[in-house]
Structure formats: C-alpha cells, structure tokens
Amino acid sequence: MKFFVDTAEIDAIAELNDLGMVDGVTTNPSLIKKSGRDILEVTKEICDLVSGPVSAEVVATDADAMIAEGRKLVEIAENIAVKVPLTWDGLKACKVLSGEGHMVNVTLCFSANQALLAAKAGATFISPFIGRLDDIALDGMELIEDIRTIYDNYGFETEVLAASIRSANHIQDCARVGADVITAPPAVIKSLANHPLTDKGLAAFLADIEAANIKIL
Ligand code: G3P
Question: Which of 51, 70, 117, 211 makes a 20 to 30 Å CA pair with 86?
Fold first, then answer.
C-alpha cells in the first residue's frame, strides 16, 4: 500500500520523505490556505522534494476553466496529478486531462457510483473521504470496500486513494480491505509507530540498563 502525505507543510513532508515513507503528496485548497503559501510556489517545492505523484487541486468549477487550470498545474512538474472535484464538470475535465496523458485525482467522492463514473472518465486516482462519512454516522470503510470490489469486478485501473483519514485504525482497515493508497496527515502516519506496550517495554529495559550500567559505546 502506498503512503501519500496529506499536507502542504514542507518540513513535515521532508521528515517523512527522509525515512522513505512518502510515495506521494496530496494537497487541497484548505491545506494550501493552512500553509499560508502561494499555491504554485509551494506545489513546486513539494514536487522538487518528492518523486511520486503530487496532487494539486483546481479552483474553478466549470469544466473548461478546470481544464485550463489543470494544464497550468501540470507545467509545474512531471509528477503533478491534477485534482478535480467529483462533479459532472469535474468528470469532463478528468476525461480531457487524462486523455492528454496527465494524472488526474478525482476528489470529494462519497459513493461507489461516483467512483464508477470517475474510473470510466479515466481517473488515475479516486479519493473517497472516509472521515467525513464517519462524521455523519455513515461507514467510510464500507465505501472503500465497495469501490475495491467494483473496480476489481471490471478491471478498472483507477487507484483507490483513501482520503480523509483521521486515525491509525483507518490506515490499518484500508490496508486490510485493499486500498491502493492512503493519504493521511503527517501526525496520523507517525502515530502508526505508537503502542503502549512498546513504551512500557522500553521503560523496563531502560531501568535495567541504568541498574546494570550497560554501555555499548
Ligand atoms: O485528502 C482529503 C482530506 O484532506 C480531507 O480530510 O480530515 O478534512 O476530512 P478531512
């Protein structure tokens, strides 16, 4: 399973990238706003740092303008994936941009039928939002499973990019049901390393190291 980092914070991306944990990056207008940076400038910096796909989202809502923005975004670097919303216009833009050979990430997906349309429009990635479905008492993970089944039934090559991930459990469940990619905030990815028994075991070892004055160097 590939790990994308869901942020526009350069330092956080660099830290995970140095560990080989970053297969790509996803951004969106809210993350760009949070970074306080110019979208083109920060996206270029991310592309210089990371070799995998970097999703940059259009801001227009009609197909022609989305296509024009997508063509500008892909000039930033070869690893740009143009992110478009799952609207009828977004699907039109997806069809044109993917037909031109560009990677397209169709975002704001909340149903399996939407995911089916995105695959038929040639999406490279479909981004179903788990957390926001859970927020309204629906089952985000069930959507990931449904899309996986449907894509496998028909051999669609669109990658299932599980988004709106809020917890380590979300990532583990995505791996279990076969999401191709997860995108998560840096803190959630780092939290995968945590276990209370690891902390407890290390504390016991440290006590014994001190008691026995064990030294290696
Ligand atoms: O990739 C989409 C993601 O950023 C949305 O996450 O937590 O705002 O629902 P969230």
Answer: 51
In-domain check, residue 139: yes
Number of structural domains, the chain?
Answer: 1
**Residues assigned a catalytic role:** 83
Q: Which residue has the tokens 């706003």?
A: 33
Amino acid at 146: D
From the CB of 55, is ligand 1 less than 6 Å away? Answer: no
pLDDT tens, residue by residue, 82-123: 999 999 999 999 999 999 999 999 999 999 999 999 999 999
Give yes or no for a contact between 66 and 104, defined as CB atoms under 8 angstroms apart: no
pTM score of the predicted model: 0.96
Q: Answer yes or no: are the C-beta atoms of 129 and 110 closer than 8 Å.
A: yes
What three-state secondary structure class fits 43? helix
**CATH code of the domain in which 147 resides:** 3.20.20.70
Does residue 217 form part of some domain? no
Containing structural domain, residue 36 = 2-212
Both tokens assigned to 78: 């070869």
- Measure the CA–CA gap between 149 and 135, rounded to whole angstroms: 24
